[in-house]
Write a structure and sequence with these properties.
globular
Length: 152
């Protein structure tokens, strides 16, 4: 699967890919993110959440550095959220994933304890992820994103 193929999928297709494609090994290196689709679930419908998602993941460049285990915005040097990554079962889909927990981060208390993301490595150069918060299906899962190697 390629980024172009993921980008062409609707939410149902992304759900199938997330559930059906095998999970590869823990990624290494620096990846840039690409917002794929917002989810129409109760937890994601609020105007404040939509604004955060639009600004943080549609308008700003963002990504993940798996080597130092941080999220960044604009450039990898602008790290904002340290995480612990571990293989896990998805909270939101019937899938094996890499779970990203942010409790180790220096983010403010309410943010740090609420953030939770999942990444499914599809190849050495492509990951499919679900961004969200620490809650169950329909409340925590907020949007699909892709990750590809960072190039300045």
């Amino acid at each position: 699967m390629t980024l172009d193929e993921l980008t062409a999928l609707d939410v149902a297709g992304l759900d199938r890919a997330y559930a059906d494609l095998p999970c590869g090994p823990m990624p290494t290196g620096v990846y840039r993110g690409a917002h794929l689709a917002s989810l129409d679930v109760p937890g994601a419908r609020g105007p404040l959440w939509r604004l955060v998602e639009r600004v943080g993941f549609d308008l700003l460049p963002y990504g993940i550095d798996f080597d130092v285990r941080t999220w960044f915005f604009v450039h990898p040097r602008l790290r904002v959220g340290r995480f612990v990554a571990s293989p896990a079962r998805s909270r939101w889909r019937p899938a094996d994933v890499i779970a990203l927990h942010y409790r180790a981060s220096r983010l403010p208390f309410p943010v740090r304890d609420v953030l939770y993301d999942e990444v499914k490595p599809l190849s050495a150069t492509l990951c499919l992820g679900l961004g969200g918060v620490d809650a169950g299906p329909g409340e925590g899962d907020r949007f699909f994103f892709a990750l590809v190697p960072w190039s300045p």
